Amino acid sequence: MARVSQEHLDARRRQILDGAAVCFARNGFHATSMQDVLKEVDLSAGAVYRYFSGKEELIAAIAAEVLETVRGTLEQAARESSPPTPDVLVPRALATMRELRPATLDTGEWLFPRLMIQVWTESTRTPALTAVLADGYAKIRTAWGGVAQSYKDAGLLPEDADVDAMARAMIALVQGFAAQIALFGDIPPQVLADGTRALMATGRDT
């Protein structure tokens, strides 16, 4: 029997994860069965179970990927020599996520924000997923803390500024905008930029 290449194995695993993500974003974790996933990816049960033991393992893998996409986006921003201010960074982070995870539902709706909400919801009831989410969020905080520190190093923040607190606030902006996209439809990047810039200007002398 011919040996299956690693590239083939990786591609098949990717196919399963992408198909499952569509199912979960469309109908939620609990309303999606493994039969739904099998139908979406057009594979036999044996082919899918070779890679994942069941729905819970699929959910955990997808959750980890969602968090890794967010973390990688923020780490990239932290490495820039001239740090983009939040009104640039927040829309850019969402745009980068869209580039990395561009899949849409049949309606044309961007899949990723809906999947984010599903992951958050499921983590409140599944301890194993809570652990995955907590670990991923800690890494995201570290990455965006690096962005906040770069603001301080560039003289854009006072020396006594709490970079972790700022990291949490900027993460909340991205999460909040993603939630709005998932619930109410897409938001033009300029709206994200203008809204964040207005927040940054609050309290300044005019």
UniProtKB/TrEMBL annotation:
Where does the secretion signal sit in this chain?
Answer: none
| InterPro entries in alphabetical order | BetI_C, DNA-bd_HTH_TetR-type_CS, Homeodomain-like_sf, HTH-type_TetR-like_transc_reg, HTH_TetR, Tet_transcr_reg_TetR-rel_C_sf
Q: Which Pfam families match?
A: TetR_C_6 (PF13977), TetR_N (PF00440)
Per its UniProt record, what PROSITE patterns does this chain match?
A: HTH_TETR_1, HTH_TETR_2
Q: Which UniProt keywords apply?
A: DNA-binding, Repressor, Transcription, Transcription regulation
Annotated coiled-coil segments of the chain: none
Q: For this UniProt entry, which segments traverse the membrane?
A: none
DNA-binding region extent: 33-52
Q: Does Transcription regulation show up as a keyword for this record? A: yes
Q: Where is the HTH tetR-type domain?
A: 10-70
UniProt cross-references to PANTHER family, sorted A to Z: HTH-TYPE TRANSCRIPTIONAL REGULATOR RUTR, HTH-TYPE TRANSCRIPTIONAL REPRESSOR RV1474C
Name by which UniProt lists this protein: TetR/AcrR family transcriptional regulator
